Amino acid sequence: MDIASAKLIGAGLAAIGVGAASLGVGFVFGSFLQSAIRNPAASDGQQGRLYIGFAAAELLGLMAFVVAMLILFAS
Amino acid sequence: MAAEAKIDPMHQFVIQPIAGNFAGGNPFVFTNSALWTLIVLGAIWFFMYGGMKRELIPGRWQVAVEGLISFIDDMVGVSMGPEGKKYVPWVFTAFVFLLFANLMGNMPFGVIPSAHPFTITSQFTFTGVMSIITFAIVLGVGFWKHGLHFFSLFVPKDAPLIFKFFIAPIEFMSFLVRPFSLGLRPFIAMFAGHVLLDVFGNFVVQALNSQSAGGIGISILCFLFIMFVSMIELLVAAIQAYVFAILTSLYIGEAVHLH
Question: B133 — contact with chain A (CB < 8 Å)?
Answer without folding.
Answer: no
